Amino acid sequence: MIASMSGFPRGETTGAWGTLVCELRSVNHRFLEAGFRLPDELRAAEGEFRARLAKQLRRGKVDCTVSYRRAPGGGGTLEVDAPAMERVLAAVRVVARSLPNSGAPSALDVLRWPGVLREEAAGGEELLSAAHALFAATLEELSAARAREGERLREVLEQRCAGLEALVAAVRARLPEVQARVRARLNERVAELAASVDPERMEQELAVILQRLDVDEELERLSGHIEEVRRVIRGGEPAGRRLDFLMQELNREANTLSSKSQDLETTRAAVDMKVLIEQMREQVQNAE
Questions:
Q1: pLDDT digits 0-9 by tens, 270-280
Q2: According to CATH, what is the number of the domain 148-284?
Q3: Structure pTM?
Q4: Counting runs of H as helices and runs of E as strands, what totals does the chain give?
Q5: Environment class of residue 248 by beta-carbon count within 10 Å: exposed (0-12), middle (13-18) or buried (19+)?
Q6: HSE value, Cβ hemisphere, 13 Å, CA-based, for 237
């Protein structure tokens, strides 16, 4: 079933480690493009998040934001990286030999050096597991929202297809009348000339004119494209690119129909077709 590319779900979960909030924002895009904003505690999970997203979605620009708020008093423990501290102190001793009058660094100075003091993240594996579960649930909600919006999109396209079909049928029903009018007009002009015309030659000329103005082929192609649109939106595969191509084809045939028309009602019908096709094209831009 056709799916939309729009959705804005939000998920939240809490535990002894604190609170996690996941927000996904999806809009239309030619390809799948994902952006992640994650807290430092969850940076390692980005690769798996991306893989899960790519497995579930085909197209769309998706922004994922995960925020983490620790529980009151739930900060991680501070640990000294002994090898890093020894490296810093060794460097200090080398400098002290070259600058004997320089003061020795305080313990606080050493702790401030990058890498000497590290904070063990609160929550650990439990926090990571909760983040994966929250992201999966929010992604499922996004897929469901896109499916619901896709169903609405399918209904809109079905309505526009029905409107196009009605216009095609109306133009086809007028073809005999239009052809008869062309024939009558040609006879009137011959009569005005008061000249003797070879009936066979006149029929040949009339056949050429009618062939040039014939729109039956355009109507057949329009009907075929409408049927293909219906088949695509009722199928189970991503339909956006195929539908975009079909909109171009529908518009091409409607333009040809308009350019060939020698009948006011047919011209109006062609304009109405182009309006409906443009409405469909705008909707299709959001189809996955």
A1: 999 999 999 99
A2: 1.20.140
A3: 0.66
A4: 8, 6
A5: exposed
A6: 7
